[in-house]
Specification:
60s Ribosomal Protein L30, Chain: A; 10 helices; 4 strands; elongated
Length: 214
């Protein structure tokens, strides 16, 4: 059942980011970081929308609607047009893109139950999002596209497609690591953990690294 799915952000955020951070610095790193706390197949649309918002200095109140064209695979994953829980919000394109439009970000504080279900502003933002299935695109991963079009109330139209999904640089990853771990770890422990991971091959035992996360 869809509600039984677990994504990376069902787990403690320190565990999430730490695991990816460690994996990215192994001799043969092969890990995509879930940059936004939502379903991965929405990330290209988030990047495109954020680019348009910043490139054209778009204000939420000036937007008429946002359209995302996509294929059947994306609709299969993002299947909650009206989410009723935190989990459903992370698998809802209207909520994810509505959040992007309203807050100019998609982050943990925009994926809480109160925001998803109760906040009238988020409900209003979700109602600005239109999803269009393109029947000409392949139904699987080979047809995974999410071009974004923002229609302004003054008649201007801005469109962009991001492909492939962007990967964070090492510096961006470090910044994200610090942001996520800050509520749970002291600054000293954060910086020490970074140093240990960056020099993992020099550690005699990993116990000292694990201790920093307790």
């Amino acid at each position: 059942m869809p509600d039984q799915r677990r994504d990376a952000f069902d787990f403690h955020p320190v565990v999430q980011i730490s695991c990816v951070f460690v994996k990215r610095h192994l001799p043969q790193p092969s890990s995509w970081l879930i940059e936004y706390p939502c379903c991965f197949v929405a990330h290209k649309a988030v990047d495109a929308a954020l680019d348009l918002i910043h490139e054209h200095d778009i204000d939420y109140e000036d937007v008429d609607f946002v359209q995302i064209d996509t294929n059947q695979m994306v609709l299969g994953w993002l299947q909650y047009p009206e989410p009723k829980s935190e989990h459903q919000g992370r698998f809802s394109m209207p909520h994810i893109l509505g959040t992007t439009l309203l807050k100019k970000k998609v982050w943990l504080d925009t994926m809480t139950d109160s925001n998803v279900v109760l906040d009238p502003k988020f409900i209003e933002a979700r109602n600005k999002i239109k999803i269009e299935l393109n029947p000409d695109w392949a139904a699987g991963t080979e047809g995974w596209r999410t071009p974004v079009t923002i229609k302004m109330k003054d008649g201007n139209v801005y469109s962009k497609e991001v492909n492939p999904v962007r990967e964070l640089s090492s510096e961006e990853l470090l910044d994200l690591y610090r942001e996520i771990t800050e509520p749970y770890m002291s600054s000293d422990h954060i910086e020490r953990s970074i140093d240990m991971v960056m020099n993992l091959e020099k550690l005699d035992k990993i116990d000292s690294l694990i201790e920093l996360y307790k």
